[in-house]
Amino acid sequence: MGQQFSRLGEDWNGDVKREETCGRRSTERALQSGVTISSGILRYVLIAHTLGLLAQSALAGEFLSGTDGVVKFHEWTAWIVLGICAVQIAMAGLALRSGGASLWLLIGSALVFLAEVLQTGTGYGRFLRVHLPLGVIAFAAVSWQLISQFRRSPAVVGSRQ
After folding, report:
1. What SS3 class is residue 8?
2. Does the residue 4 lie in any domain?
3. What is the CATH number of the domain that holds 60?
4. Shortest CA distance to 159 belongs to which of 5, 30, 58, 28?
5. Which alpha helices (DSSP H) does the chain contain, by range?
6. Is the alpha carbon torsion for 102, 104, 107, 109 positive or negative?
7. pLDDT tens across 108-118, in order?
8. Could you give the number of structural domains in the chain?
């Protein structure tokens, strides 16, 4: 008598079967936690990406002010940022599947990756007229993605209210 049942039905041999509401609620909670986990990891990846791009601008400023030793760190950080962006694309895809991100975040992440590949190439080629503005655009795009992901509340997948 302590259990509540949400639906009564019959199986193939005519026996009455019952579906418990607590089973449905636990499934919804599991799906919601999947959204929360993928969305949470994506947020940490976006924070790391933004901080990596911020470090890149600081290292570039040091290099442009005449300190030659930081150019190697600038190069290493560029490859780390590219790796983080690849992880961001994967996490955006996972979060999209579970409802924790939008399609635009996935598309934007792919476009930022292409911009960062171009950014790395123009850095090696010393095309500063393209390299510097592209860095500013990449930082603005990732910052915007970070802000939009933090403003987004995790969706409740499968809820029927």
Report:
1. strand
2. no
3. 1.20.120
4. 28
5. 21-64, 71-98, 103-124, 128-151
6. negative
7. 999 999 999 99
8. 1
